Amino acid sequence: MGHGADHPCPHPVAIPPPKPFFKSLGTSLKETFFPDDPFRQFKNQPPSKRFILGLQYFVPILEWAPTYTFEFFKADVIAGITIASLAVPQGISYANLACLPPIIGLYSSFVPPLIYAMLGSSRDLAVGTVAVASLLIASMLGKEVNPNENPELYLQLALTSTFFAGVFQCALGFLRLGFIVDFLSHATIVGFMGGAATVVCLQQLKGILGLVHFTQGTDLVSVMRSVISQTHQWRWESGVLGCCFLFFLLVTKYFSKRKGAFFWINAMAPLTSVILGSLLVYFTHAEKHGVEVIGHLKEGLNPPSLNDLSFGSTHLMLAIKTGIVTGVIALAEGVAVGRSFAMFKNYHIDGNKEMIAFGMMNIAGSCTSCYLTTGPFSRTAVNFNAGCKTAVSNIVMATAVMITLLFLTPLFHYTPLVVLSSIIIAAMLGLIDYEAAIHLWQVDKFDFVICISSYIGVVFGSVEIGLVTAVTISVLRVLLFVARPRTYVLGNIPNSVAFRSIEQYPVANNIPGVLILRVDAPIYFANANYLRERISRWVDEEEDRIKASGENSLHYVILDMSAVGSIDTSGISMLEEVKKNMDRRGLKLVMANPGSEVMKKLDKSKLIETIGQEWIYLTTGEAVTACNLMLHTCKPNPSGGEYDARDNNV
Amino acid sequence: MGHGADHPCPHPVAIPPPKPFFKSLGTSLKETFFPDDPFRQFKNQPPSKRFILGLQYFVPILEWAPTYTFEFFKADVIAGITIASLAVPQGISYANLACLPPIIGLYSSFVPPLIYAMLGSSRDLAVGTVAVASLLIASMLGKEVNPNENPELYLQLALTSTFFAGVFQCALGFLRLGFIVDFLSHATIVGFMGGAATVVCLQQLKGILGLVHFTQGTDLVSVMRSVISQTHQWRWESGVLGCCFLFFLLVTKYFSKRKGAFFWINAMAPLTSVILGSLLVYFTHAEKHGVEVIGHLKEGLNPPSLNDLSFGSTHLMLAIKTGIVTGVIALAEGVAVGRSFAMFKNYHIDGNKEMIAFGMMNIAGSCTSCYLTTGPFSRTAVNFNAGCKTAVSNIVMATAVMITLLFLTPLFHYTPLVVLSSIIIAAMLGLIDYEAAIHLWQVDKFDFVICISSYIGVVFGSVEIGLVTAVTISVLRVLLFVARPRTYVLGNIPNSVAFRSIEQYPVANNIPGVLILRVDAPIYFANANYLRERISRWVDEEEDRIKASGENSLHYVILDMSAVGSIDTSGISMLEEVKKNMDRRGLKLVMANPGSEVMKKLDKSKLIETIGQEWIYLTTGEAVTACNLMLHTCKPNPSGGEYDARDNNV
């Protein structure tokens, strides 16, 4: 066999020009933390303009307020009033779910929306409390502090954990670590939300059945045990009322789904239920027949709660943990909702900036008696449907809530709790997205497994167990992809210079005497051993096949490196070993199309000299041409392969 | 712009033929757990032959024993005696390091090598105790049980943890989970071994300086504080003796390294030191002048220790944890050593089978008063250099140790501990592989960071901290690669149909009106958001560039999917959004060369219909040709691109 340098090599493989270490470090840090290039607009601007742009960057209201029109205002007022009519009953219901005083839920719809209107970059997001985070707060804090026995401490902890959630959200945003939220995959969220919705609905059995004693656990088993063991305590008045309102809410929901223009039916239904329920109780005195009511609500705006933040408490670690977990969950929902609606209207949302806005609003909230808020999907969808134009709709909502707080709280005295339970159940049923789960099963079985384990974890374990399981499985999937990358044998697609997997393209032809392998992942420590074994197994199998079919023996092994995006030192050692192994078997190792990262490492580790620069080709086609040329030159009677070397002489 | 179906599409992209769910599940499970295809040899064999092959598979001695020759035996006897001369002093030293009675170290060189000789598949591996695992046992168990105050309980725990290490190793092997060991990357191991060697050397300061009281901590700070605070307790006799023997050992090491044939000098040096040291103490009565000696060693073979395994103890969790950690570390060293030497001699080692062999030998060991053993590098290298042929050298070594145990233990009565410390230091200095660290820095900065953090973690924290840090950083690196994949703009390499990154190949030409992007990683939930933003940023930047240069406007965006090995449902949604986004901008999304996984998912999610089957091409070249054709047909005066569509008409 002649020396490689003899044959023509028309397209050398470039080693990327060396970059100084700190420059390449800078580039990769920038790609990691500033992928959206937020400084782009600051380029080539005078300092004064830069200052204004910087201010607008951190306080987006300064950007859009100057161009705000009366037309926008009209639209925003309508949208704002609509979401306020949803915010009041939902606020009370979710505060109930979080085992907090109902008034806290109303407070939470006043201050945070105002902060978000100034700092947030979404035009559609409506701020408010959410069911899942409320449930999480109740289940995490409830483990250490009983909200019925020690309501003050419980409230302090809820506010403190809201404060930490805000700090954590801000920190994620400032440190540009928003991509952590991306690790909650779509499949995880579908399963998690479905599970949480199921759990929240189960919790409402307490309200619907009018039970006084109820389990602290959130899992299906303890809830069902608690419900079934108390059959004699069920209150039919409460149950009938609950079922009626649930039916009413579901019917309105169904109608507004059928016709987009009827969205307001759905939006108004909760407030209507509250009014109807309150009137009913007021006139029938049902509160004396087992129908629990909200009772007295304090009038007046949010009292300051800075002194309630208890940093010296023995439960500080619990508050921090609760803050981080609920903060991440709230962020995931808020950012995803903001992004989805921005997609509809074709504007851009900066995830990290949104996190800072969410964080600031929760920090401010925790100082003004509000608990954790984010951008709930349901309220945002209503806002969007009502035709909101900017975040001013949040200001309008906050004003409406303010008026409620100042003058209308006595009206909620007779509101029955069972109506709130119905409102929660109706909202939650929409979150159990079984169609998405079916879609996952059809498209990607692994994603379905992630989704289901998340669901089962939440329903039978706890919210945290479900979340941790799903994230772990998701990460394991990524690691498994890297640990067990696919390798393919390539063949020539007839009438072309392209080489493709013979598994995907059964028409692809083998090249006699040449085995072409393709590695479909970066070569890292986690897969280096596997790849070494797998490559040698491919060669074994090819040699067995050749022996069986009586073809010409194998001479060349071409490694197509197109899909190898990166390589580490374990990978380099692996290639060295493969090279040695091939030499020992009397085979020639040829490389096709190594990328820039791979070429850099090959060069630095001197492996390029071991393999021989002349055995590295730009394309698989050129590598095959060269191998064929060598086979034809050195062997007087080569078996005529279907792939003719001259074809490729572009 | 005309419809895509009008232009010729010579090479359709194949959707891989549908596979039944359980078949594809089976294939991927097989690739994950049986990548080496161990059942291959069983195919097409009669049942009786299969039985024999199966027996040989699990007990490899049955495979090679029938062909064993007298020539082999001669070589193995020489190698066995050589490693025995190393095993005796090392066994005593390392048992000392693990805070176990010295005799346990000798026991551990008797039973485990016999088991390994039957079950192991390496021909070169010499079985024995290792310094790092010994240190780990001492530091982990020492946290709860003081070996000086409660030696019996401590011994029981060491044996119990050895038992669990064996069970864990066996389980990993049986469950085919050997790839877990691969997550300890080369860089991690270099840093970890270096750090552990440093820590072990520091511990020897106690023996060298003849200190009686010493810190329980293993980190640099507490050891140095302990040493410096006791300057008045230093014993010069001990120090001088230690330095002399250390010098002797290092000189012999240096010489045997210079000339391979002198390996036996290095191999014999420890035993020589022990004999010289013992004679010196015996004749000078140095044991009465501050030189501590081993003292009485019990004669006789390993006593059974099944009753010492304490499964009911309150420290059971500690024993299990210690067993798992030390078991993994021991496996990593043993498997890596076995593989390296198998590479030299060109035979194959099955990692999972090796794990079962290691596990069985530790389970058997724990029942016969042996503590954790594996295949230490130093002893195996000596075995290899001494010309061993099969695992019979282990049997010879075990026999030599047996004779020592039966008759020669009284000879070690006067062996000074300081000589053992010198032996350990001399062995450890070779493990601090600073050259490998420099190589890591040159080739891969990230690997260097992993290595150094592992080293610093071990030296300043503890062995576990170092290990956990390094593994976490390694895994984060993989996740970061997936979370922030590289994307490139491709250009046409002149005089070819190949398209490559214009960053790596500055000669590559842009195609006017067409932007070609390449994604260099699987598209997963972890990077879907990033990729969406990044793709839209590439398009923005390209449009800015076009605006600045006054070229023809952008019409087509080609996504080269060659390197996208896999995609999940989040990735599919991302592509859907990119498609919508491009439509909104009036750009056409074209795909080139999606792999089989991607095509399968595109097909199942109906995205293929949204994009249009006719906009998916086999190669980037064909996609560009089609785009150019459309541009030329629809526009009367196209700007003449350097890339001519007809070039590609192969």
TrEMBL record, chains A, B:
Domain STAS: start-end pairs: 504-627
Compartments, record wording: Membrane
Major location category of this protein: membrane
PROSITE patterns reported for this sequence: SLC26A (PS01130), STAS (PS50801)
Gene3D superfamilies the record matches: STAS domain
Source superkingdom: Eukaryota
Membrane topology: Multi-pass membrane protein
GO molecular function ontology, one term from the record: secondary active sulfate transmembrane transporter activity
Keyword field contains DNA damage: no
Listed InterPro entries: S04_transporter_CS, SLC26A/SulP_dom, SLC26A/SulP_fam, STAS_dom, STAS_dom_sf
Protein name as annotated: STAS domain
Organism of provenance: Dillenia turbinata
Upper taxonomic lineage: Eukaryota, Viridiplantae, Streptophyta, Embryophyta, Tracheophyta
